[in-house]
Amino acid sequence: MRLPVQLLKRLPDTHKGDYGYVFVVGGSPGLTGAVCLAAEAALKIGAGLVRVGVPASLNEIFEIKLTEVMSLPLKDIGGFLSLNAFLQIEDILERIDVIALGCGASNNPSTQQLILKIIEEVDKPLIIDADGINAIAKDISVLERRRSKNLILTPHLGEFSRLIKTSIEEIKENKKELVKNFSFRYNLILLLKGYHSLVSNGKYVFVNNTGNAGMATAGMGDVLTGIISGLVAQGLDCFESAKLGAYIHGLAGDIAVKEKTQLCLVASDIINYLPKAVKLAIRRNRR
Are 186 and 157 a contacting pair, CB within 8 Å? Predict the structure, then answer.
């Protein structure tokens, strides 16, 4: 898969603001790692600035775990993001370019209300994963009420099953058509994660051929969300970002597995091997 021109070389006279501002919203007790993985992946793939919007009572954890990433402590209830945090998010919307929503956010009712409000009222590109998808599954009509014209959903089979109220077995039998139809119906980009992940814009379906079974482990989806968010922040359109994100994510896994083995591969390895994956993709571009 060819890399877009803007990722191949940067002009000398540029600064961090030229490469996009990613805002990752999520985190809850026991699930702080999801936000960290997404944020670090967005930064590693080239985003100029990354900030996490996290429960205020857990902010110290993120301040310790994240070095290059900024944090915004948001109003919470017992460590879970509160609907009242929306006003804080509104205050920074002018500065950010893309929101990654749902990583480790939990199914707390107030958090789910916050997620739905962001989807309904924020006119920014949104990459939605995990508990963000779970919130949508409870109120699918929010996809029709949303303001953003640029929306990427990244469900695994179980989450997609909840979205379309169809069994996993039925989905496996007719994945391409179901993915394409859902994407067309709601005018969004759908990336169905799994063996040979599918990406559709409602017209075309891209079948990703990178990745391996060692990537079937916790946190991989968070890293993918971060990679896609970082690409969108740098100016790629959502369909290209989702396709390239899936490809680079899997390619990093294929390089890492040669040293780490399938048994020992973990999500943070993907972040560490992104530079090698990008270099390999660039070499393939030149052939």
Answer: no
Could you give the CA distance from residue 43 to residue 40 in angstroms, rounded to a whole number? Answer: 5
Residues 195, 225, 270: CA angle, nearest 5 degrees: 65
Phi and psi for 207 in degrees, rounded to 5? -105, 115
Q: What ranges in 17-167 are assigned the alpha helix state H?
A: 32-44, 59-65, 86-92, 109-121, 131-138, 142-145, 157-164
The CATH code of domain 17-285 reads 3.40.1190.20
Q: Which residues have a Cβ under 8 Å from the Cβ of 116 and sit 6 or more positions away?
A: 135, 136, 139, 142
pLDDT the model gives residue 62 = 98
Give the C-alpha separation, 265 to 270, whole Å: 8
Q: Is the pTM of this model over 0.90?
A: yes
Domains of the chain, by residue range, sit at: 17-285
* Partners of residue 70 on adjacent β-strands: 51
122-170 pLDDT, tens per residue? 999 999 999 999 999 999 999 999 999 999 999 999 999 999 999 999 9
- How do beta strands 70-74 and 76-77 pair? unpaired
